[in-house]
Each structure stands twice: as C-alpha cells, then as structure tokens.
Amino acid sequence: MFTEQDTFFIADCHLDGSRPDVSALACEFFKAIEGAGALWIVGDFVEYWLGDDAGNPQLNHVFDAVAKLASLGTTVTVMHGNRDFLLGDAFGQRIGGTVLSDDATVTQLPQGPVSVMHGDTLCTDDVGYQQLRTLLRSSAWQTDFLGKSVAERVETAKALREKSQSATAAKTDGIMDVNAVAVEDAFLASNTRTLIHGHTHRPNTHELEINAQACRRIVLGDWHSDHARVAHSSPSGVALKTFPF
Ligand SMILES: [Mn+2]
C-alpha cells in the first residue's frame, strides 16, 4: 500500500510496560506502514530509558516490530526526546535503524527540505526545564549516570521524575507550549519552510509567515490506547493523519 515515496513521522508513544494497548497499537502501525521509504521516531518513543544496557524487556515485541519494518526496507531514524535521551547506538542496531543525538535535523522530502526535532528545545519559557535539560544532556552527567548500577539508575530516575512532576503541576499551559521566537529561530536556522515536532501533545498544523515566506509547523500527537496523530509525507505533501488509517 505504501511505497518508497511515503515517509512517516511519529512522536511521544511513551511506550511503557504498563500500557500494553499503546504498545499493541504501535506494533499495528509498524505493520501498516510496511513498504514506506522512511520512518522518523521524533522523541519520547519510550516513557523512560536508563541506558541501552538496561533495555526494557517489556517492550521487546515493539522493538522487534520496528526491526521487521526496517528489514523490509524502511529507513528508521530515532531522535531523542526528553524522556529517552539515553537511547544509543546499540538501541539503533537493535531496531535496525539509526539514533540521532542532534537536537534538530533536516531531511529531504519529495516536496523539499523539512526540519525535524522533538520540540522540547522550543519550550524556552520553561526556564526550569531548560536548566535541567542542560544538566541531563551533559556528557559529565550521562557518564556518571551510566556508570551506576541499573538499580541505582532506577532510583535516580524516580527522584528526577518526582521532581519534574511537582514542578509541572505548578506550571501554566502557556509555559509548557512552544515559544514563538524559538519557533522563528528554528525556521531561520534550518532554512526550511516546514517544521515537524512533537513533545507538546498538541497535534495541529500551524500556518505562519516568517521572513515573508509561508511556513508550516506540524505538531505530532501523543499516542493513546486507540489512536495516534502522525505525519505522512507523500509526493502530494505532508499532512497529519489519524492512525488507524
Ligand atoms: Mn517530550
């Protein structure tokens, strides 16, 4: 049904052993897009990741489904989200794809270059989060964290999550959405007219004008037990679609 000309973008599956329905839907999706040229998983594929050596045995069947898709010829690229920034090269090999550690990248689609990012870097109003992000993405912190036993990492991650949850509860909706200047900067830095990102869980297509050029910001949805909003690129353009198709 799909060909090399089709590219899909998904984000925020937040896969977790406690949500088997979402895992099942993801497996269904990877089967449904067989034949597509490329799949981009744009961050927060999994709810947490403590390192490739720790893995998550409860999600092996989902990783197998991605590996199957890749083995049939779809190029799979994974970008880091704020929850799974420790996905590494071994995970990439596990799923037959590539893990990119860049915050943003540009991919060439039939209708032109498209900028792709998780989207947390656009939420610059959330100063507390951005400070934490700088720490967690530093190689010093990551080397220290990955040097701990898996049991110790579980404890550290739990403490971080509790801290972030209580901070999030105190934040307004606006603070947790993208900042308009950061969006403009992202368009200018990438020199593209289409930006695809996730993270905010506010799936939508925003038309905007930057430097007198019509631009589009496509926001991917988070995954629910029965549906997900994904982006589909074909020679006729890029559009948000609801899966199941
Ligand atoms: Mn996120």
The poorly predicted ranges are none
Based on CA atoms alone, the radius of gyration comes out at 17 Å
Give the N-terminus to C-terminus distance in angstroms.
12 Å
| CATH-defined fold name | Purple Acid Phosphatase, chain A, domain 2
User: What is the class in the CATH system?
Assistant: Alpha Beta
Overall CATH architecture: 4-Layer Sandwich
Which structural category fits the helices and strands?
A: alpha/beta
Task: List the bound ligands.
Answer: manganese (II) ion
Query: What is the count of distinct domains?
Result: 1
Order of helices and strands: EHEHEHEEEHHHHEEEEE
Helix content: 25-40%
CATH H-tier superfamily? Metallo-dependent phosphatases
Number of helices: 7
Give the strand tally: 11
Strand content: 15-25%
Q: What composes the largest sheet?
A: 6 strands, mixed
Strand order of the largest sheet: 4-3-2-1-10-11
**Principal-axes shape call:** globular
The whole-number mean of residue pLDDT values reads 96
Give the tags.
single chain; 245 residues; alpha/beta; Purple Acid Phosphatase, chain A, domain 2; 6-stranded mixed beta sheet; 5-stranded mixed beta sheet; 7 helices; globular; binds manganese (II) ion
Report on this model:
- This protein is an alpha/beta fold.
- The protein has a single domain, classed as Metallo-dependent phosphatases (Purple Acid Phosphatase, chain A, domain 2, 4-Layer Sandwich).
- Helices cover 33% and strands 25% of the residues.
- It contains 7 helices and 11 strands.
- It has helices at residues 20-32, 60-71, 89-94, 127-136, 139-146, 150-169, 180-190, and strands at residues 7-10, 38-42, 75-79, 98-100, 104-109, 112-117, 194-197, 204-210, 213-219, 228-234, 237-243.
- The strands form 2 sheets. It has a 6-stranded mixed sheet with strand order 4-3-2-1-10-11.
- The radius of gyration is 17 Å and the shape is globular.
- Manganese (II) ion (MN) is lined by residues 12, 43-44, 81-82, 118, 120, 199.
